[in-house]
Amino acid sequence: MKLKLLLPALLSVFSLVSVAQAPADTLLHASTARSLNLNYSPEILTLNVKQVNGTKDSFHYKFATSAAAAAAEEPIMYVNQTVALRYSDVNSILVVASDTTLTVSFTDNVGSPVSNTFPLAVTPDRSVRSWTGTGEFGIGFPIHRSGKTEWNVISSGIAFGFATPVNASLPLNPSMGRSLEWTWNILLGVEARRGRSSFKTGLGLRYLNINTVARHYLDKAENNQLILRPYDENARDVKSGVHIFSLQIPVFYNLNFAKEWSLSLGPIVNFNTGAHLTTRYKIRERDYKIDTHGIGQRPVTVDALLAVTVGGFGVYARYAPMKVLRERAALDFGTFSTGLILAF
User: What is the Cα–Cα distance from 41 to 186, expressed in whole angstroms?
Assistant: First the structure.
């Protein structure tokens, strides 16, 4: 009988000794963070530390195993034990892990120290992962770290704005409210981050249309020049414009400052893969739409972008000084656009 009582106690002592002897690794050592959220149960532990050291970086840790395996590993320690931690504006964050424990220490927003150590079951089916992402709205995960420089695969910069032509050679009479720009600045790319600064590049998409609501519409003449023709005198609800689709490669410099603010700027190389004219109007009860292709867009142009964001959401301005169309089109203009940007 005494032997049966002694065995669980010996197992518990052995477990504690193993925990003490297991080598530890510092996963995170930061001065400040916007928030710290932790959820623990015997089979799952998740930890999220957001906006580390005033940057967009968020630290993530995840441990998982099956409930049965966790209970079999240590039946005394893993009985109906759950913990949830929610803190904002924390300081002096230290996350240390070994094979059998995770220790999370920090100072809360009133200066009180907090420290918790969580046991991790050593089971054949368990998984452990930690990484640093690039913001609440952006998508990113690390692929390499060299010294203080971290390399991430990213996807960022979804934008919607309004555009207007600049230095047009024809009186286009544009409607900026109906001339729209849709952009995914970096559909898939790479980022090199060091402290508060980072450089990012990749492949993105852009769709731009410049619309006019004047009494003349854009058309392609027999000599391939683009000209303005008058609508039928009975036409109403008129709209005509140039539509351009581009693949783009940006190179952006990003600086995080203050607590959640970020400044981004840099050039964008556009590969203009498609362009056409579209004219719409109504005469009596009939709707008319005319699409004209082969208008002679320039294959490559270069723009510049400036964006200011707070917590991943903000505004941008984009200037395209280069002519959008070839000389044979006899229609010269650049563009200026501005709007909202997300995940940058």
Answer: 38
